[in-house]
């Protein structure tokens, strides 16, 4: 399992361009993931976390 929080935003954007599905794990350590689709490029927040907007969710994950 590749975690978004452990991946640089540039690498995520290369692997998952806008419109690409990927498995999102809302609770790290729990294997129940859900398929989501990117709606933006990933970016790093002011606190250094990498986030991305996905379809069907408010805010970023």
What does this molecule look like?
The mean pLDDT is 89. This protein has one domain (4-51). The chain has 61 residues and is α+β, with helices and mostly antiparallel strands. It has one helix at 9-15, and strands spanning 21-24, 34-37, 43-44, 50-51. Strand 3 and strand 4 form a beta hairpin. The protein is globular and about 25 Å long.
Gist?
With 61 residues, the chain is α+β, with helices and mostly antiparallel strands. Helix content is 11%, strand content 20%.
> Spans with pLDDT under 50 lasting ≥5 residues?
none
Report the mean per-residue pLDDT as an integer. Answer: 89
Total beta strands? 4
Quote the beta fraction: 15-25%
Identify the strand order in the major beta sheet.
1-2
Span from first to last CA? 16 Å
User: Which value, in Å, is the CA radius of gyration?
Assistant: 11 Å
- Helix count from the secondary structure assignment: 1
Number of structural units classed as domains: 1
Structural class per helix/strand content? Answer: alpha+beta
Secondary structure topology:
Blueprint: H1 9-15, E1 21-24, E2 34-37, E3 43-44, E4 50-51
Question: What are the defining features of this structure?
Answer:
two-stranded antiparallel sheet; 1 helix; 61 residues; 20% strand; two-stranded antiparallel ribbon; alpha+beta
């Amino acid at each position: 399992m590749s975690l978004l929080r452990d991946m640089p935003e540039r690498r995520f954007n290369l692997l998952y361009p806008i419109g690409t599905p990927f498995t999102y794990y809302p609770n790290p350590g729990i294997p129940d993931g859900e398929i989501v689709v990117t709606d933006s490029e990933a970016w790093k927040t002011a606190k250094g976390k990498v986030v991305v907007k996905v379809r069907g969710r408010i805010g970023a994950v």
